[in-house]
């Protein structure tokens, strides 16, 4: 994966030249203004480049596609979320049982997605490399590690994918249109997590 297209695992550095860092910040600021004015669906990399005063090739090389630019826009909140589940207080952070942490992680992830729902919906329209790289890879690795402890009899990687699948922006938006509250969505995800992490009867 190209540096800058997607968020790294927390703690990894991404060194940049000063001019590249300035261009990156300028592009992000322009993209944020455009989303505020028109909404995420109208974001165009060509227009961002023109407004930022940089070449279109610079934007595409730096971010790869529209989803890569959106990930850069949500970077700071994602880093705070990663800090919470990697080193924050339990049950989201270390100190609780693996099954309890898995449930806390998934319900917190619902809040995380809802907090920037339009941007996450836009990312989900991107390429599989964008959608399932970066933060998804971090979330999957974390959840699979918890599931490996809670369910040593099962494939933790498959279960992680299965539990992350319902926590997507398009589905949550549709559930809200059907009248579900966020608390009801979280309760459903929590119940699913408990069902998956329960040890099978001997």
From TrEMBL:
Annotated coiled-coil positions are none
Please list the residue ranges annotated as the HTH tetR-type domain: 21-81
Pfam families (UniProt xref)? TetR_N (PF00440)
According to the entry, DNA is bound by residues in 44-63
Gene3D superfamilies recorded? Tetracycline Repressor, domain 2
Task: Tell me the leader sequence span.
Answer: none
User: InterPro entries, alphabetically?
Assistant: Homeodomain-like_sf, HTH-type_TetR-like_transc_reg, HTH_TetR
Q: Which superkingdom is the protein from?
A: Bacteria
What keywords would UniProt list here?
DNA-binding
This one is known as TetR/AcrR family transcriptional regulator
